[in-house]
Write a structure and sequence with these properties.
With about 220 residues, the protein is of the alpha/beta class. It has a single domain (about 1-220), classed as 3-Layer(aba) Sandwich (Rossmann fold), CATH 3.40.50. The chain is built from 8 helices and 9 strands. The protein has helices spanning about 40-45, 60-70, 95-100, 125-130, 135-145, 180-185, 200-205, 205-220; strands spanning about 1-5, 25-30, 55-60, 75-85, 110, 120, 150, 170-175, 195. The strands form 2 sheets. It has a 6-stranded parallel β-sheet, with helices on both faces. The protein has a 3-stranded antiparallel β-sheet with strand order 5-6-7, with no helix packed on it. The radius of gyration is 16 Å and the shape is globular. It starts with a strand and ends in a 6-residue tail after the last helix.
Length: about 220
């Protein structure tokens, strides 16, 4: 089975570097991240990398991107695995979901550009929010590569027609300081789920255990 890995906000394919070696047929791609990028453009970018049915793995905000791709090209998506990621609700945007949850640890950590098209995270807060249990080398890599994220995709709601009927699963990070574990549980309700005792960045803190969890959740998606 083929896997395609999608990063979360401000991240890129580099964040999956320690996970990919545990897969025989896997790739990680970047998403459009200019100020005019849209959620539809994210879906198109993913769909262009689906020559055959593929399991999509999305981290954090990447949960919206992989779901958008599944809505655009459901015949080429074998399943969706959310890694401490947002699971879209019909008719709601990511921003609406985040604001509706009572515990919002990311509040106050955003830097928004003058025309409100891009945001980034406060460099002084990112280690505590995302990488508190990650090796120093990995934290340095992230500091060197994090880039601004377009706001528009996160303010765009999805209409869910196909994705709820595809195999889906969730990896909850119980030490996450960015997306509260209770919020993750609510979004993962009804889905097969594995817990990891990790921060928001299990691809750095425990890449082998993350890969094992993905393989385990993917196994039922490859049958039939």
């Amino acid at each position: 089975m083929r896997f395609l890995f999608i990063p979360g906000s401000c991240h890129g394919p580099w964040c999956w570097r320690d996970v990919l070696p545990f897969f025989n047929n896997a790739h990680a791609i970047d998403l459009p991240h200019g100020p005019d990028a849209t959620l539809a453009a994210h879906a198109t970018a993913i769909a262009e990398h689906l020559p055959e049915p593929t399991i999509l793995v999305g981290h954090s905000a990447g949960g919206f991107a992989i779901t958008a791709a599944a809505e655009a090209a459901p015949d080429r998506v074998a399943g969706l695995i959310h890694v401490c990621a947002y699971v879209p609700r019909d008719g709601e945007s990511l921003a609406q979901m985040r604001r509706a949850w009572p515990d919002r640890p990311l509040s106050g950590s955003y830097n928004v550009n003058a025309d409100r098209t891009l945001f980034s995270f406060d460099p002084a807060r990112i280690d505590a929010l995302f990488y508190h249990d990650c090796p120093a080398e990995a934290r340095a890599l992230a500091h060197a590569h994090l880039r601004p994220e377009p706001i528009r995709p996160q303010e765009t709601a999805l209409s869910l027609r196909h994705s709820p009927h595809l195999p889906r699963a969730y990896i909850r990070c119980t030490e996450d300081r960015a997306i509260p574990p209770a919020f993750q549980s609510a979004m993962a309700s009804g889905l097969p789920q594995i817990d990891l005792p990790s921060s928001h960045s299990p691809f750095f803190s425990m890449p082998e255990r993350l890969a094992q969890a993905i393989h385990r959740l993917a196994k039922p998606m490859t049958r039939g």
